[in-house]
Specification:
Elements lengths: L2 H10 L4 E5 L5 E4 L6 E6 L2 H9 L1 H10 L3 E5 L2 H12 L7 H17 L4 H12 L3 H5 L20 H16 L6 E5 L5 H10 L2 E6 L2 H13 L6 E5 L9 E7 L10 H11 E14 L8 H7 L8 H11 L2 E8 L2 H15 L1 H7 L2 H20 L2 E9 L10 H14 L8 H22 L4
Parallel strand pairs: 1-3, 5-6, 5-8, 6-7, 8-9
Antiparallel strand pairs: 1-2, 3-4, 9-11, 10-11
Helix pairs in contact: 2-3, 3-16, 4-16, 8-17, 11-13, 14-16, 17-18
Length: 441
């Protein structure tokens, strides 16, 4: 191991049990020896030099190229050890502040996501083989944070709970028009059309996702209510009762936040409701991880809430609710990572060893970021008027229960919207009766 890398590792790793074997065959130990051991082997001088200069990019790239292996522990346990020692405190150092300022200055050039570039960015990730995603996603192909109402939920149960949670916040009624921006493989749009008898338009820039979503709509007999288009949301001109966007805002880019919310304000009817579900960070604005930007999500960025709110305010939209989902995505990614690794041989048959290693690092690194760093999920509810939703949040839970009962077959004799209205109205009616009895009316 070169002396510079050794000094950096000695200073960084004070807690834990890390061993590093360099290209010369010599092994050095770092940390206080506590916890599970992680043993990393760097096979080449080239990788060693690269790690010294840019570890956040060079370590995953060396792992991808089989120039680095973990002979004890794995990617996730290595990242846990590193985050135990560093967290995000490096930003507070003078070098960290200087580096962060330089990266922030370059950020606008990395996120010039016009229509043409946005499509290319989407193709890089979402037009991969559909068979790949089937190997680790749930049956409904939900590629976004699930909602774990209980810790013992399966991935399928948690993704269904996510759809209930989102649609409860939208308070959809039969016959309403719903726009799904970034509709993925159509799962949420089909769920809305099927459950609420609403008319759904889903838009995506992924050819693969568009084809799958369209095929699913026809196969389920929902093509008359759920329609999917290969289209940029910026080209839309229709107006909708409800707008939902799940896992798409991360690809918009900071340069285009004003355009995004201005367009949503134009597309949303005066008494409409919008729900934005996006990855976010609880810390201040920063930049996209170099490995993620280069190999996984080109043009992507995870915003701080402070970067989003000013653009909402200027658009004329009104924030009516913000919920922060903590650790839900960590658990979702854990399920994805475990399923991916269980099907690793099948993934390798579709692509190759390099791809398997790249995605193992991506899924592990993402889980680590949600579990031990500052990443969370934002659910931001938006309207154009302040009287289109109930005054308290109680209706959300009541709507979810009504939807769940409908899904279990307890209220098939009436539309789910009717059950929701009864559930929401029932407490108000009880209160009115109590007041009347007490002689207050």
């Amino acid at each position: 191991m070169n002396i510079l890398l050794q000094r950096v590792a000695e200073k960084m790793v004070r807690v834990g049990n890390l061993s590093v074997t360099g290209p010369d065959g010599a092994t050095r130990n770092f940390g206080d020896g506590s916890g599970d051991k992680v043993h990393m082997v760097v096979h080449t001088r080239r990788a060693e030099r690269a790690i010294t200069l840019h570890p956040s990019l060079a370590i995953p790239e060396a792992f991808m190229e089989q120039e680095l292996d973990f002979v004890e522990g794995d990617v996730l346990s290595f990242l846990h050890l590193i985050y135990q020692n560093t967290g995000i405190s490096w930003i507070d150092s003078n070098w960290g502040k200087l580096l962060n300022h330089a990266r922030l200055a370059a950020r606008p050039f990395q996120q010039l996501n016009n229509a043409r570039r946005s499509k290319k960015n989407v193709e890089r990730h979402y037009d991969l083989s559909g068979e790949l995603y089937k190997l680790f996603l749930d049956e409904d192909m939900q590629y976004s944070c699930a909602y774990y109402e209980r810790p013992d939920m399966t991935l399928e149960e948690a993704q269904l709970a996510k759809k209930r949670h989102i649609t409860a916040k939208l308070k959809i009624k039969p016959g309403q028009t719903v726009l799904d921006i970034g509709c993925g493989w159509g799962g949420l749009g089909l769920y809305i059309a099927r459950t609420f008898e609403a008319d759904v338009l889903g838009v995506t820039l992924s050819t693969e996702q568009h084809q799958v979503a369209t095929d699913r709509a026809h196969a389920e007999g929902l093509a008359d209510r759920a329609h999917f288009e290969l289209r940029d949301y910026r080209d839309l001109s229709e107006r909708f009762d409800r707008i939902v966007s799940v896992g798409m805002f991360e690809h918009v880019g900071v340069n285009h936040y004003r355009t995004y919310f201005d367009k949503c304000a134009q597309l949303l009817k005066p008494d409409g409701v919008m729900l934005l579900h996006t990855i976010g960070r609880v810390g201040p604005p920063t930049t996209t991880n170099a490995f993620i930007r280069k190999h996984i999500f080109p043009g992507g960025y995870i915003p701080a809430l402070s970067e989003v709110m000013p653009h909402i305010e200027r658009s004329g939209l009104m924030v009516t609710d913000v919920e922060i989902l903590r650790l839900h995505y960590a658990e979702t990614l854990k399920a994805w990572r475990e399923r991916f690794l269980a099907n690793r041989d099948k993934v390798k048959a579709i692509y190759d060893e390099r791809f398997c290693r790249m995605w193992e690092f991506y899924l592990s690194g993402s889980e680590a970021s949600f579990r031990w760093q500052d990443l969370v999920n934002f659910q931001i509810q938006l309207t154009r008027k302040n009287d289109v939703l109930p005054m308290t949040r109680d209706y959300i839970g009541k709507c979810e229960k009504a939807i769940a009962l409908h899904e279990m077959g307890h209220s098939k004799e009436e539309p789910v919207a009717g059950a929701i209205e009864k559930a929401v109205a029932k407490p108000a009616a009880k209160t009115a009766r109590k007041r009347k009895v007490a002689g207050k009316e």
